[in-house]
Amino acid sequence: MARLPDSGVSAMNKTSRSAKVFKPKEVFFTGAGKVITGMIEKKKISREDLAQAVGCNPVSIWRYEKDESPLSTEIIKKMAKPLGTTPTRLMRECLVALCASFATSPFGKALDRLVEEGF
User: Fold this and answer.
1) Per residue in 15-63, pLDDT tens?
2) Residue 116, helix vs strand vs coil
3) Does 63 map to a domain?
4) CA nearest 75: which of 16, 32, 15?
5) Is 23 a domain residue?
6) How many domains are there within the chain?
7) Is 58 part of any domain?
8) CATH number for position 34
9) Which domain holds residue 62?
10) pTM value?
11) How is 9-59 classified by DSSP, letter by letter?
């Protein structure tokens, strides 16, 4: 697992022998539990209902909230709809929680445009 410097983001690296290009298979977010907690409270969804929608147990949801387990992109995709958002918006919120300057970075602004377009 590769870890991006000074962030709570890591990626599983799976590259072919002929290619030297970094192509993460899945990205993991650590440290974005407050985002999940905030969205659970805002949507007023129970952890049990969220766990059922995601396909895990409520203890896993608690671990994501307490940053004891990293959030994978796959889990974020599954959480988005029951939390009343899109996967792209949820990933953006997780990234901003990890690094506030992300919101004003060129990449952050590009991601904002994607979120606005409903991507």
Assistant:
1) 445 555 555 567 787 888 999 999 999 999 999 999 999 999 999 999 9
2) helix
3) yes
4) 32
5) yes
6) 1
7) yes
8) 1.10.260.40
9) 2-85
10) 0.71
11) EEEEE---SS-----EEEEEE-S-HHHHHHHHHHHT--HHHHHHHHTS-HH
